[in-house]
Amino acid sequence: MTPIQNLTRAFREQQNREEATQSVFEIFADILARQLAAIEVINENFESGKNEQYETCLQLTAECFRCLRNACIRCVKNQSHIRTVGLIDPTIQILQFLHKLRGFQSDTLSAAFQCGLQFLGNLAVGNEETKNVIWKNAFPDLFLNGLNHLDKKTVAYCCMVLFTCLSIERTADLLNHTKGIKLAETVIKICKKEPQLDWAFLIVTEQFLKCPDLVSAIYTKWNNQERIIILELISAKLSDKNLEIPAGSDDLPVPVRLMQFLAACFEEKCMAVLKYASDTDAEDEDALIVIKLLDILCETTSNHEKFSDLQNSPALVETTVKLLYETRLVGRQSKNIFTASQSLSFTNQITHPAVGFKAHLIRLIGNLCYNNKENKDKVRELGGIPLILDNCNIDDHNPFVSQWAVFTIRVLTEQNTENQEVISQMVRQGVADNAMLDSMGLRVEERNGQLYVKLQEKCE
Fold this sequence. Notes:
Elements: H1 2-10, H2 14-19, H3 22-45, H4 52-71, H5 76-84, H6 88-100, H7 107-124, H8 128-138, H9 141-147, H10 152-165, H11 168-173, H12 178-193, H13 198-206, H14 212-221, H15 224-238, H16 256-269, H17 285-301, H18 314-333, H19 357-369, H20 373-381, H21 384-389, H22 401-413, H23 417-424, H24 435-439, E1 442-447, E2 450-455
Antiparallel strand pairs: 1-2
């Protein structure tokens, strides 16, 4: 044990790692082969708390893994030596046996399992050949065992190994394996259960989201509560302030094909949000999904250069305009979250999930119509222009709705004489009875076709 501990300390230095020869790792191959045989025997005859050899065996195994972990750090030569002498297969077999011994709670057991995963992670970094060998031996069972472990550190280390080994091709292969789908689902659920585990988040955002078929398959299979997890992860990826896409690059935070799938989901389920017009629970999952889908669509369509393909969907334009009409209709039929509110109160902030929904609908219409005459004409034909103009007032339920309405009207009328004509032909019907202006102590007068805003006279 002591010589291995000394070597573990020595391998902390880059020079010592570079000077190691293949014969050193052949010795470790022999040690781990004997450890594997011993652990297999112990596993077959194990009675919790009664096997004295167990702790000794685990201590030696853990120290071997710790030493090999250090040997791989920024050292391709040692990674190759370890692969050549065949250390990967016995390591994974040992980890599988250790997983079966979870009934025996021991710090040494945890250390051995964790050091083994760290060793595999360091072994795979920057070495494609080694990744192939690890993937072939560890997928799917070792990854599933590690991801479902009760210890958070073990889960984190397993996620690290998985992220290091994954590629676009291997991620796509998850679809072809029943346990591959289960593995992907497990990682996504870890993101919700343990949000502080960055490796799980990276697996989803840097690997899974690049495979639209995988995400759409899981999304279709899952229930609403689980779908919300996926949508929140996509939103987090899109809102990542550190995300930098070089000019001219074809890289996208979320593939267009995945966004087209989500747009179709929005078109199919969008009317569920109208449940909020009644006394429906604010946590209604069907309605929450519609809101999150709309947020994602607004964010992606604002990047016209990268997501211009989303504009080639007349159904999405028609659905959005129709939903804006329906929200206005239900907002007028009774007092609810879709009813325009002009209380001008800055103290009673509204926390309902549908706050801002109409503003986002208008934003999406503007994004879809940007430099797109077909969509501009479509909005006019659907009667969308008056609907948008109807939202040019302050609305407590829809912060910044007037700004988005002005933006969208500008987009609709730019280089479109037909839409300009619709607005110019609107007939002035006098000054509206505006309770909001009254509350501000203002009044509107009309003289010679012009409107003037004045202070109301104080009553003595």
